[in-house]
Design a protein that fits this description.
0% strand; 2 domains; 12 helices; mainly alpha; Endonuclease Iii, domain 2; Endonuclease III, domain 1; 212 residues; single chain
């Protein structure tokens, strides 16, 4: 299906909620994303698992050691060849090792078919991915947006989206995921763009708040 031109997507977001008018004008059209190659999709999920709940510097260090161990990109077969002890020596925690091996096993036995995932509906992709140990809705949403390039993802559990929405609508108490879910309906079928503008808004707010 042809993708909507980016300037039309920006206009759609601005038209559906005037609170976005300024950030749309400042940021311009949202980026267009094409689906990642099938052979790169496993690696994006493995990287997401490795980065969970870690400071950026620590996550990068561990990720770099894993790449040196198994090769770049990370593959299911490479993880299985490396084994548990070698990943532990890289600094990968026990829960993350179990998640990585579950992801690898489900890929190797065909439970996860990354070519087929690219043809699934968003809800079905989320259901398949969250069946993997350690992958929750947030990781599935990021995969849909950034790896599969889906246009209508609304990650209500993402702190940045919630904070950006709250900022754009006057500040105050951080909007709850349930309320954000309902509020986002107006942006269909371009909720991914609305999320991107929420991220841009809170990044701008933080930048402005920093002392000079």
């Amino acid at each position: 299906m042809p993708r909507t031109p980016r300037d039309e997507v920006a206009a759609h977001v601005r038209r559906k909620d005037r609170a976005f008018a300024r950030i749309v004008a400042e940021s311009g059209p949202p980026p267009g994303r094409r689906p990642a190659r099938v052979d790169a999709r496993f690696a994006t999920l493995a990287e997401s698992i490795l980065h969970q709940q870690l400071a950026m510097a620590a996550a990068r260090a561990i990720y770099g050691r894993v790449l040196a161990l198994v090769g770049d990109p990370i593959t299911a077969a490479g993880l299985r060849r490396a084994g548990d002890d070698a990943l532990a020596a890289c600094g990968v925690s026990g829960p993350k090792r179990r998640s990585l091996f579950d992801l690898a096993d489900k890929t190797l036995d065909g439970t996860l078919d990354f070519a087929a995932i690219g043809r699934m509906r968003d809800d079905d992709v989320e259901e398949v991915l969250t069946a993997v140990r350690g992958i929750g809705p947030w990781t599935a949403h990021m995969f849909l947006m950034f790896t599969l390039g889906r246009e209508d993802v609304w990650p209500v559990g993402d702190y940045g989206v919630r904070a950006g929405w709250t900022y754009l609508h006057g500040g105050g108490e951080l909007i709850a995921p349930r309320d954000l879910e309902a509020a986002g309906e107006r942006f269909r079928p371009h909720r991914s763009a609305a999320a991107w503008y929420c991220w841009r808004a809170i990044e701008g707010a933080r930048s402005t708040a920093q002392p000079t």
